[in-house]
């Protein structure tokens, strides 16, 4: 297996750039670069040197041994200064080593999948990754499935396993001291999952609508340069589709196409304390829109940002032509391309704010499960055929298989044996 | 043509079915047992059948095995478990008169042409050309054979514990076969260690039955064999009593003297059949546990208190027994004990239960990590059929998960292995709605007939039954009933729907065959069992199409054979862990690979691709 390396962070100037190395030669690469291999999982400051001993950079190095790393292989991550020159130099040094090569797009993730390091719903992850044609699809698949969808699926799964176990215990251990009627608990469990599924299925429409456009709010104090920025962007965007005055004079929407991604930029009322009721209402509206937006960009010409600007927000100094510090300028156009690229990258990596069912087959799987749960609930009501309740629960689990791993009888038995004293 | 010869080692439930099955197929069988009198002995609880197990008994019976008929010759209390649930999960079960059962089994073996019963100890296997070629007895005599089936139960390194005392041995009173065991250890098969326990046996006349709740059998007994009509032996009741806080105090006080809790035993026990020590330690908040008092026979005078198996010292057993209602003056005839034993990880076996590392040797029963008479019997029969087919160079006889509980069990064993004594549950069968105890004969008897496993008597009875079923089905399909008429007759259908066949009406929820008599008078002409059978089939009619689709899918996976020499270590994209598991298990089909723990669809794809790549013709240079 080759040892692969690649810059894990976005290319270009940045505070920090991370280069990730994965594979059997990763540890040797680290020793060659830094002189030693840091203790595993500990951030360690090291000097990276070229072959001739000259300093390439000083940075934080983290070693993840095989079995406890993202890819499952030995992984070393170099957190370097985000300079293009530094990154190029280190990459060149890595490329010159024996047994290493630059990673193909998505290759780290592919290795993580191959090595069972991602407890994702594997079919989908693999299929999506292989089938994905765009960066957007790839990231979306990973993000949704690596996080929210999986944890929801696990929650549903454990509820269904518990319900299945309750039913199974009354079937397979009918001659033991076990509860005779478990229908209230089973009904509660199934109803809970069904409710969640329905919400997701209903939310699928919202997800589709969201596909029509992400919202990015531009916020900041009055006169921070929000409108100028919007105008500058609008002028530069060939694909500008519309410019609509909002329902109030204070929210202006501009739809732009950011590298294939439909984005609506929101120009909002300047944030400040005010006694003017109408302006205050406008600010409230701006805040509300901003809260529901997918991304918020805070502008400030003096580098002071309001406390509500959070970790996930973009903070930018505007009017760089006036103060000379790094930032953006609507006048000179400085930094605007980078800003748009940053916005695009952030949106692409963002989970749509609503719903976990982002693909039709997610929705289909959930709908299939919901149908079975309906039938299971009907079967509980008609009594006398507990085996049909069990049948529908297992079909519901099967329908969710697309979202998660298989449910096994051993899961039911484990649940049974840990909760009931079986054995007369 | 020279008649083939198969040796079956062990006269337990697996051994007798193996011997009988091979004999039915026309093979000469030597059944070697340590104790002729012990053939057919029930060393644990005196009952046959139950949930999941009743299905296995019926399947063994459908293949003309001896367990069902023997049990019906000895049944003294019949209960259909889950009677109030659907037929798919109903399990026929009967309490046995131990002596009658043993006699019935011994008579069946004796009455079968082609079985030579040899009392002796098998000391070793004859091995030639890397295959088992027979056995060597302790007296030095050699018996050559074409195949050897080991059904030796707990003989591998078996240790009995009563309190802190321990002694080597299989079940009480049996010798352990040490030399043969060494041969298996030398094969370097993967092994594991399990434990199981039994309760003290009580003298029936020392129990105060009058104070205990009586548990009678069913009014209409459901027989274990398709060929039986009614019980032969006198029917009796069991009784139910309970442990109490006093019992639990005694057990708790002496817990350190228990072999299982004193650290003497490290084998893994069945979670579904815990010892009394286990129950009290693990479920401390329960203040009482149920005990079934099961007579071991009509005249034998001993009772099996089901629910208090133990490895406490005898004196403690007596103390806690006396703390239980109705048992205050009970005498212990034989103390309870725990037994620890080694088993062969069944993943070392092929789909026919043959040891992959030593062709010619088949294993069945407890030696494969299972528990229960029924599980052993089913494996014995299955191993024998495959051994016979192998020595005749016939196709292997494989049963799928889609058609039988036997297929489920074999697949579970060889693909998943066992971590605790393996027992059948209906939940293990994903096609449970179609794999019912009531249709085991329809599922398996024709298959058995095709390979000469089923005798003429059963084949004729089965054909006759099928003719009746066909007749009633054609009546039901043929009768078309208007919605108004059906509604008028009280059926839960709307007045205005389309006309339907009587068969479709039968499939409507809450419609029974009796409800149709007025509409289709011909139905009255059929016997009760035939009527009941179509009724049972109709319950699941609406589910079967979908199950069939899934079954077809599984059968396709079962038919996708993985080459035995596939080098998993060389497959890119398999995790190290999975690759090791696959190498150890060597699944023979994609379906088997899919059932390996931790298997992922992605990894299955890798294997599928490798199979396809292997099929591609080599490119010429």
From TrEMBL, chain A:
Keywords per UniProt: Cytoplasm, GTP-binding, Hydrolase, Magnesium, Metal-binding, Nucleotide-binding, Potassium, tRNA processing
Residues bound to GTP: 223-228, 242-248, 267-270
Binding residues for Mg(2+): 227, 248
Top enzyme class: hydrolase
GO CC annotation terms, alphabetical: cytoplasm
GO BP annotations listed: tRNA methylation; tRNA wobble uridine modification
Gene Ontology molecular-function annotations: GTP binding; GTPase activity; metal ion binding
TrmE-type G domain sequence ranges: 213-348
The UniProt record lists the keyword Transport: no
Swiss-Prot/TrEMBL cofactor(s): K(+)
HAMAP family assigned to the protein according to its UniProt record, in alphabetical order: GTPase_MnmE
Family: Belongs to the TRAFAC class TrmE-Era-EngA-EngB-Septin-like GTPase superfamily. TrmE GTPase family.
Described purpose of this protein according to its UniProt entry: Exhibits a very high intrinsic GTPase hydrolysis rate. Involved in the addition of a carboxymethylaminomethyl (cmnm) group at the wobble position (U34) of certain tRNAs, forming tRNA-cmnm(5)s(2)U34.
The name this protein goes by in its record: tRNA modification GTPase MnmE
Species of origin: Palleronia sediminis
């Amino acid at each position: 297996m080759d040892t692969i390396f690649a810059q894990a962070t976005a290319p270009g100037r940045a505070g920090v750039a991370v280069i990730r190395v994965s594979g059997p030669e990763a540890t040797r690469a680290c020793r060659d670069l830094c002189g030693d291999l840091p203790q595993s999982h500990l951030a360690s400051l090291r000097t990276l040197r070229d072959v001739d001993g000259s300093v390439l950079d000083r940075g934080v190095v983290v070693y993840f041994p095989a079995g406890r790393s993202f890819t499952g292989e030995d992984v070393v991550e170099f957190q370097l200064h985000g300079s293009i020159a530094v990154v190029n130099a280190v990459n060149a040094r890595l490329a010159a080593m024996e047994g290493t090569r630059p990673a193909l797009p998505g290759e780290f993730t592919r290795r993580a999948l191959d090595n069972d390091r991602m407890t994702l719903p594997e079919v989908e992850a693999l299929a999506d990754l292989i089938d994905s044609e765009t960066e957007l699809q790839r990231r979306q698949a990973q993000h949704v499935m690596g996080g929210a969808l999986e944890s929801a699926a696990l929650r549903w799964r454990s509820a269904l396993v518990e319900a299945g176990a309750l039913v199974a215990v009354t079937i397979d251990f009918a001659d033991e001291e076990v509860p005779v009627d478990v229908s209230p608990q089973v009904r509660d469990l199934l109803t809970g999952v069904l409710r969640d599924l329905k919400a997701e299925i209903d939310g699928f429409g919202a997800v589709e609508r969201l596909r029509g456009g992400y919202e990015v709010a531009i916020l900041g104090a009055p006169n921070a340069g929000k409108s100028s920025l919007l105008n500058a962007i609008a002028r530069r965007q060939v694909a500008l589709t519309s410019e609509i005055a909002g329902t109030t004079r204070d929210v202006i929407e501009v739809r732009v196409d950011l590298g294939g991604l439909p984005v609506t930029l929101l120009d909002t009322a300047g944030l400040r304390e005010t006694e003017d009721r109408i302006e205050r209402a406008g600010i409230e509206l701006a805040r509300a829109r901003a809260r529901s937006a997918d991304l918020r960009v805070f502008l400030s010409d003096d580098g002071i940002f309001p406390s509500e600007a959070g970790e996930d927000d973009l903070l930018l100094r505007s009017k760089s032509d006036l103060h000379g510090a790094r930032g953006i300028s609507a006048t000179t156009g400085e930094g605007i391309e980078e800003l748009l690229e940053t916005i695009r990258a952030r949106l692409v990596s963002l989970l749509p704010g609503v719903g976990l069912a982002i693909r039709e087959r997610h929705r289909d799987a959930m709908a299939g499960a919901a149908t079975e749960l309906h039938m299971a609930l009907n079967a509980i009501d008609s009594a006398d055929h507990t085996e049909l309740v069990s049948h529908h629960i297992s079909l519901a689990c099967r329908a969710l298989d697309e979202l998660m791993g298989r449910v096994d009888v051993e899961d039911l038995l484990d649940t049974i044996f840990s909760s009931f004293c079986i054995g007369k | 043509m020279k008649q083939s010869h198969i040796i079956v080692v062990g006269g337990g439930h697996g051994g007798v079915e193996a011997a009988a099955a091979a004999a039915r197929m026309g093979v000469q069988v030597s059944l070697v047992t340590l104790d002729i009198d012990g053939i057919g002995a029930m060393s644990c609880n005196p009952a046959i059948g139950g949930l999941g197990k009743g299905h296995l008994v019926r399947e063994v019976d459908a293949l003309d095995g001896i367990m069902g008929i023997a049990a019906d010759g000895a049944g003294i209390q019949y209960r259909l478990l889950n009677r109030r649930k659907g037929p798919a999960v109903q399990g026929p079960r009967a309490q046995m008169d131990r002596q009658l059962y043993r006699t019935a089994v011994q008579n069946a073996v004796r009455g079968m042409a082609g079985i030579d019963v040899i009392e002796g100890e098998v000391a070793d296997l004859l091995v030639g050309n890397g295959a088992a070629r027979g056995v060597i007895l302790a007296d030095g005599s050699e018996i050559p054979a074409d195949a050897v089936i080991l059904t030796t139960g707990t003989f591998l390194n078996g240790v009995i514990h009563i309190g802190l005392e321990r002694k080597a041995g299989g079940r009480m009173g049996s010798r352990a076969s040490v030399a043969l065991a060494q041969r298996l250890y030398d094969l370097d098969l993967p092994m594991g260690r399990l434990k199981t326990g039994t309760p003290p046996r009580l003298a029936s006349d020392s129990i105060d039955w009058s104070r205990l709740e009586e548990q009678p059998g069913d009014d209409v007994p459901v027989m274990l064999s398709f060929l039986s009509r009614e019980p032969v032996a006198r029917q009796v009741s069991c009784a139910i009593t309970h442990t109490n806080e006093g019992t639990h105090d005694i057990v708790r006080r002496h817990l350190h003297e228990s072999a299982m809790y004193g650290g003497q035993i490290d084998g893994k026990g069945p979670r579904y059949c815990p010892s009394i020590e286990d129950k009290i330690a693990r479920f401390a908040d329960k203040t009482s546990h149920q005990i079934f008092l099961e007579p071991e026979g009509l005249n034998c005078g001993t009772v099996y208190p089901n629910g208090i198996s133990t490895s406490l010292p005898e004196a403690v057993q007596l103390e806690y027994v006396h703390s239980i209602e109705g048992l205050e003056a009970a005498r212990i005839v034989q103390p309870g004990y725990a037994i620890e034993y080694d088993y062969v990880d069944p993943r070392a076996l092929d789909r026919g239960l043959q040891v992959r590392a030593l062709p010619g040797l088949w294993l069945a029963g407890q030696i494969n990590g299972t528990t229960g008479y029924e599980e052993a019997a089913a494996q014995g029969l299955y191993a024998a059929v495959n051994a016979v087919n192998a020595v005749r160079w016939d196709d292997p006889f494989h049963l799928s998960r889609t058609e039988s509980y036997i297929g489920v069990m074999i697949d579970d064993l060889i693909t998943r292995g066992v971590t605790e004594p393996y027992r059948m549950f209906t939940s293990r069968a994903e096609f449970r709605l179609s794999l019912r105890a009531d249709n085991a004969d329809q599922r398996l008897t024709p298959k058995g007939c095709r390979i000469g496993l089923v005798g003429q008597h059963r084949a004729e009875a089965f054909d006759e039954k099928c003719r009746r079923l066909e007749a009633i089905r054609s009546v039901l399909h043929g009768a078309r009933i208007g919605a108004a008429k059906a509604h008028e007759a009280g059926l839960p259908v709307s007045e205005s729907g389309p006309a339907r066949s009587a068969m479709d009406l039968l499939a409507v929820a809450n419609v029974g065959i009796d409800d149709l008599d007025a509409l289709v008078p011909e139905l009255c002409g059929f016997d009760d069992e035939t009527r009941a059978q179509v009724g049972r089939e109709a319950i699941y009619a609406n589910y079967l199409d979908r199950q069939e689709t899934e079954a077809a899918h599984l059968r396709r996976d079962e038919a996708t054979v993985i080459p035995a020499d596939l080098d998993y270590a060389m497959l890119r994209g398999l995790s190290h862990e999975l690759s090791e598991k696959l190498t150890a298990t060597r699944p023979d089909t994609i379906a088997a690979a899919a059932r390996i723990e931790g298997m992922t669809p992605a990894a299955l794809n890798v294997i599928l691709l490798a199979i396809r790549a292997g099929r591609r013709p080599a490119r010429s240079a």
